[in-house]
Amino acid sequence: MRPSRCLLILFAFGSTSSISAQNLDQTQPDRGVDFSGVLQLNAYYNDDLVNNRENPWLASPRNPISGDRLEAAGSSVRQSRVTLSAWATDVLGGRAEGELDLDFFSSGAQDQRPTASPRIRRVVARVIWPNAWVLFGQEALPISSLDPSSFSAIGVPGFTGSGNLSRWLPQVRLGLEMGTSLRVGIEAAAVAPRFDNLLDEDSPEPDPAELSKRPFVQGRLLSRWGDDATGGEITVGGHYGWFTDDVGSLGTTRAGAVTARFLVMSRFELRGEAFLGEGLGMLGGGGIDQTLSPDGAPVRTKGGWAQLNVHLAESIEVGGGYGIDDPNNNDLDPATGRGFNVSWELHCHLRASPILVAAEYRRLETTYLDAVYDLQTANHLNMALGFEF
């Protein structure tokens, strides 16, 4: 993930980036284009140091000498988002779709105000047939395509660093699916190798994963039922990748992950993710954004998140969630390592189209191996005002 600034979000209640082969609608025009998004202002307050003022996902070490908390408040429009969508029917016997998804959120240097240039989150093209699809572009990872519902965690999805592998990477993906009311399928993808962490991802030199000259490989099994409003989805996936270590030998990164989203009694939605693996800083915050140990071995870690959302009415959602990432302390630098990270969140979304109002409370608890810092905590409050179009 990386820089930018002003205006958006199209899907308010989070999104799965999976493609359903059942969504062929031949009644639409032969070709069409849609432009949508949200113009969004976020006001925020932090009661202590965090890694990002507007959208934090870990508590930063406080000055060990003074011990003073550092409270601050501000506002930003960088978590706005715009999406350009296009479609065409009867393409190679199926339906073709494309999306360009932009936000303006910069994850630049932490000691200065980020620049305001737009950032490509996703750029996706796909062709969908009744029981198959092919996708290429930059998209969420096949093994972790589900994010929590949030209007305050857009630039970096919620629970990043505490259970959510949240990166968007270039890829080519193939899928097959069978069934009617209950659909089962399989996906396989070649994903661009990427090593840099969320906190340090702009370098002119090829990174260790690119030097391996091999793509990451990911795949998953799918089970889906109903539609977005009444159904659900469970996926089980795996990841395997390579990187070149300091002496030119190949190292590996691997993971297994489960995601789930389903509705209970129409008003209650449960969604979440769990993973286990090593070297997962490459995939967006895994291991609390720590990829390798001091001796160059992949950091082993496990984590996950869960969120319960209650739809009180068509325009009102309240909910809350919990996420955790727990890397193996034996793999971390004892002086700088982050040994444990926990996030709690509560939110309320009110949508009176085209206006939206959203509030979120987030508590961050980050444990450092250095006994001087030990457990650091921070509370984050965020209010979003938006105009959807």
Tell me what you see in this structure.
The chain is mostly beta strands. It has 2 helices and 17 strands. It has a 16-stranded antiparallel barrel with strand order 1-3-4-5-6-7-8-9-10-11-12-13-14-15-16-17. The longest helix has 4 residues, at about 210. The model is unreliable at about 1-25 (pLDDT under 50).
> Residue-averaged pLDDT, rounded?
88
| Count of helical regions | 2
What Rg, in angstroms, do the CA atoms define? Answer: 20 Å
- Which range does the strand content fall in? over 45%
Biggest β-sheet description: 16 strands, antiparallel, barrel
Shape: globular
Features:
globular, 389 residues
Briefly, what is this?
The protein is mainly beta and 389 residues long. The protein has 2 helices and 17 strands. The longest helix is centred in the middle third of the chain and has 4 residues, at 208-211.
Helices, strands, pairings?
Elements: E1 31-46, E2 72-76, E3 81-91, E4 94-103, E5 119-129, E6 132-140, E7 168-179, E8 182-191, H1 208-211, E9 216-225, E10 232-244, E11 250-264, E12 268-278, H2 286-289, E13 300-313, E14 316-325, E15 338-352, E16 355-368, E17 375-388
Antiparallel strand pairs: 1-2, 1-3, 1-17, 3-4, 4-5, 5-6, 6-7, 7-8, 8-9, 9-10, 10-11, 11-12, 12-13, 13-14, 14-15, 15-16, 16-17
